[in-house]
Design goal:
97% helix, mainly alpha, Leucine-rich repeat flightless-interacting protein 2, 1 helix
Length: 71
């Protein structure tokens, strides 16, 4: 009986440790998913800014070309 009680105590301890590790992993996963969403949002914002700046640059080039052809 003593040996079985010892085994039960070890298994309980192992199960508690496994649950603790599982909770930590779940928290880490949530944190990483949050960081991923933030990074993806930032990429999208930067792509939009880049597209906007590229359009402005094209307009400026077109205006310069038009001015040079008028001279």
């Amino acid at each position: 009986i003593g040996r079985l009680e010892g085994q039960v105590a070890r298994y309980k301890s192992a199960a508690e440790n496994a649950e603790k590790v599982e909770d930590e992993l779940k928290a880490e996963k949530r944190k990483l998913q949050r960081e991923l969403r933030t990074a993806l949002d930032k990429i999208e914002e930067m792509e939009m800014t880049n597209n906007h700046l590229m359009k402005r640059l094209e307009k400026m080039k077109a205006n310069r070309t038009a001015l040079l052809s008028q001279q």
